[in-house]
Amino acid sequence: MTRTALAFGSALTTLSLLATPVPADEIASTLSAPETPAFDIQAASVERDGNHLIFGIDVAATAGSDTPEAVGELAGSTVYSYVWPTGLDPSAVGFGAGTGILAFAVTSHPDFDDTPLFDEDGDGDPANDGRIWHSHWVVLTAADECGPARLKVRDIAKGEVVDVPKTWPNLPILMDSPGWHPLFTETSVEVRVPFERSVELAGVSFDGVTAALRVNANAHVPLLCVSAVFDVASGDLSLPGRVE
Fold it and tell me: pTM of the full predicted structure?
């Protein structure tokens, strides 16, 4: 895990979303995380079907079986995630242009619910479903204060006026809760995501990551840091995949 985290952090200092990716819609993982089979990436993919992208990650075993331990409050809580960093501009989903790295994520976190428009477990309460795996768009930026991974979900400063999607969950970070449901098998997670027809999807670069994030113990800036990296499909966050 340490080697992967260091490679992840180092890549953030050199990552360019203009780098030429290889012409493939699947990345075979170059690293291994045998101690966490549910997050040990075997392959990451993003396939295009018309104006939809299908995000997929294959793992060694028991996909989605590991969820964080609850701590009883938002501050200091942990988020587990399957993540696809992309070369899409954040404006493609409603954030401001050029605000960071747009990534699609499937997450679980038992201590808070950030999908206020959706009742994932169908019990009539839309505010108690954080542990159930669900999807987000997030805008990622480099952050030395976040430890070895040096990455956070971009904060919204007090009083800052920013563009956010209609399904923004009213948290002070660039995150969207669009409600696209992940599908799990024993060894994979997959999500089908629609886009406006005006968004160019062919040729978009991508990578695959499994990671943990941590909410600031003071629930303050930075609010949500990447705290541990389990695996990176490319090994160096170079976004070598390309949507065909």
Answer: 0.90
